């Protein structure tokens, strides 16, 4: 995965502000893989993933003039937030259209914490993408994005206790999937 060094972030922002034709190319080359990974945590369909990334890059390119560089990593974090927001917009649209069920009623699994030690990152991503949409979304927002259950509830239009319940079930299901994966590799 290629990611621009933090010193290059500020230079990249300056190139955009100067109207350099290389700016878009350098931004895409430096961050496309990382942003694809961020998007893939939320969106599983290849066509949807491509659409979300395209919309995200359009927003990034058109709103970079308003971005305020705040130090190393701030550009990367700002772009990741755009990708997360675009991913959530897609999930909301799908929910309204009835294609995503956030309160999936799956059987309870025994309480387990996911043990990802020794797993390659690609395997973790594959297993994470096997979770139902609602579980995966809540898990990402809580664990990776650091959102509270109240914030998740507001973002997804669910109650905070539903968010907590889905997080609990997501962790259990992920632990179950990881254990199955490890047994298959033994």
Automatic annotation (TrEMBL):
RNA polymerase sigma-70 region domain mapped to chain residues: 27-96
Taxonomic superkingdom: Bacteria
Alphabetical keyword list: Sigma factor, Transcription, Transcription regulation
Gene Ontology molecular functions: DNA binding; sigma factor activity
Keyword Glycoprotein: no
GO biological process per UniProt: DNA-templated transcription initiation
Domain annotation RNA polymerase sigma factor 70 region 4 type: ranges: 122-173
A Pfam family that the UniProt record links to this protein: Sigma70_r2
Tagged with keyword Transcription: yes
Species of origin: Prevotella dentalis (strain ATCC 49559 / DSM 3688 / JCM 13448 / NCTC 12043 / ES 2772)
Protein name: RNA polymerase ECF-type sigma factor
Similarity annotation: Belongs to the sigma-70 factor family. ECF subfamily.
